[in-house]
């Protein structure tokens, strides 16, 4: 009897040891596999209803990137082949595969050649009879902890995607700041992938901290780098290699079927406001007068909450772009750069008008907030706060709703005050 008990105990211990070894080996294998992936994120170059662009970074060179994907529920994996190019001033290689001819409103699985882990993404729906949600903000990282914090708050919305309006890693196109980019991509890997493996796509605009400004390099002792590489004030050494982009590099439009268009603009960060970009903007807006939701996204604000009204590129944005927003019926534009939160009243032709455009944002995702103008004493500010924040956007049918949360998840504002949209994620 004692032998039987001992034998049973021995078998149990042995079973536990075997299971532990298997689990440890599996975990160790997955960990080793994940070490091959230095970064992973999703974005779009074409219609988000039927496409997805997948980027991942490794330390390997000379391999043609291949991934496998399938619609959830399918038993058969499809193969997609992409292209690779160097991560500037880095040992990393950027692999990029664009998937097309996908089905709208569907969940897909994919796995990378370097890992057996299965990730997921969602294509955007054919219509918005049900709510579609995204989160907007800008000026994302001078402190990784703050970026992580904001990312986690954004994920509470279960967003379909995130749009960032420039000043991403604060690397200033300077190779000496390359760790800023590594940390930025680490934050995305650590916070924008759900427990079930769904990767939330991002859309990015360019800001002043993506370009190599010669005066800044001169002040920081990096002018020799600019001279060595022939940089000018408009050179964005990392940005255009790191991000796939729709249409013209630096500005473009993503059309979500026929219900939403996100227009990415460049406020003089290599592409002047005046000239071809403004001509393109007018043509783009005029072709989308039938679209219910048109959101311009750019870095330097027309209506700053911190800086002087006539500083930087703000006067040019007001002179050349805001009249086009008025003309073609834009309702909300996202602005950044000032490291604060602001909401303007509806503005049309330079005055408060109920038929005008509301300008939201001012970029304080993962940066130190700055002191704002007194909203009561500033004609173009409805609300201004010195606070890190995210903007949760819900669209449904022809309706829009914007819910603003601080870095701790507290509501700081909403627009409009009363919403007909079901806004709880």
What does this structure look like?
The protein is an alpha+beta fold. The protein has two domains: 84 residues, Purple acid phosphatase-like, N-terminal (Immunoglobulin-like, Sandwich); 284 residues, Metallo-dependent phosphatases (Purple Acid Phosphatase, chain A, domain 2, 4-Layer Sandwich). The chain is built from eight helices and 23 strands. Strands 11-10-9-21-22-23 form a six-stranded mixed sheet, with helices on one face. A four-stranded antiparallel sheet has the order 1-2-6-5. It has a four-stranded antiparallel sheet with strand order 4-3-7-8, with no helix packed on it. Helix 2 runs parallel beside helix 3.
Which features would summarize this protein structure in a list?
425 residues; single chain; four-stranded antiparallel β-sheet; six-stranded mixed β-sheet; Purple Acid Phosphatase, chain A, domain 2; disordered N terminus; globular; alpha+beta
Q: How would a crystallographer describe the biggest sheet?
A: 6 strands, mixed
Count of discrete alpha- or pi-helical segments spanning 4 or more residues: 8
Strand order of the largest sheet: 11-10-9-21-22-23
Overall mean confidence score, pLDDT: 87
CATH architecture of the largest domain: 4-Layer Sandwich
């Amino acid at each position: 009897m004692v032998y039987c008990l001992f034998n049973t105990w021995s078998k149990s211990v042995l079973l536990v040891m075997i299971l532990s070894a298997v689990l440890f080996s599996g975990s160790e294998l997955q960990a080793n596999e994940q070490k091959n992936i230095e970064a992973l994120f999703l974005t779009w170059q074409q219609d988000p209803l039927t496409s997805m662009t997948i980027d991942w970074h490794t330390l390997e060179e000379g391999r043609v990137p291949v991934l496998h994907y399938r619609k959830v529920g399918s038993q058969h994996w499809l193969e997609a082949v992409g292209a690779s190019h160097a991560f500037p001033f880095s040992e990393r290689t950027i692999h990029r595969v664009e998937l097309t001819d996908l089905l709208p409103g569907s969940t897909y699985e994919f796995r990378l050649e370097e890992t057996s882990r299965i990730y997921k993404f969602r294509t955007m729906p054919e219509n918005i009879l049900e709510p579609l949600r995204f989160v907007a903000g800008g000026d994302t990282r001078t402190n990784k902890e703050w970026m992580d914090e904001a990312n986690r708050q954004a994920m509470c919305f279960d967003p379909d995607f995130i749009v960032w309006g420039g000043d991403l890693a604060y690397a200033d196109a300077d190779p000496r700041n390359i760790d800023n980019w590594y940390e930025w991509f680490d934050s995305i890997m650590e916070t924008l992938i759900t427990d079930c493996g769904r990767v939330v796509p991002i859309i990015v605009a360019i800001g002043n901290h993506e370009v190599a400004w010669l005066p800044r390099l001169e002040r920081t002792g990096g002018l020799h780098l600019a001279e060595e590489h022939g940089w000018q004030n408009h050179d964005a050494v990392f940005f255009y290699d790191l991000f796939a982009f729709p249409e013209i590099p630096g500005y473009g439009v993503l059309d979500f079927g026929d219900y939403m268009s996100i227009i990415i603009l460049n406020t003089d960060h290599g592409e002047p406001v005046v000239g071809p970009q403004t001509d393109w903007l007018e043509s783009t807006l005029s072709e989308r007068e039938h679209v219910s939701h048109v959101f311009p996204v750019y870095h330097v604000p027309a209506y700053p909450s911190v800086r002087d009204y006539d500083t930087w590129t703000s006067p040019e944005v007001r002179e050349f772009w805001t009249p086009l927003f008025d003309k073609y019926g834009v309702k909300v534009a996202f602005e950044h750069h000032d490291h604060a939160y602001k909401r303007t009243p509806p503005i049309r032709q330079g005055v408060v008008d109920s038929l005008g455009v509301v300008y939201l944002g001012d970029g304080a995702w993962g940066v130190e907030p700055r002191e704002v103008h007194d909203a009561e004493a500033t004609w173009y500010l409805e609300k201004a706060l010195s606070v890190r924040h995210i903007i949760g956007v819900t669209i449904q049918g022809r309706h829009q709703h914007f819910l603003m949360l601080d870095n701790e998840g507290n509501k700081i504002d909403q627009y409009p005050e009363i919403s007909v949209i079901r806004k709880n994620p």
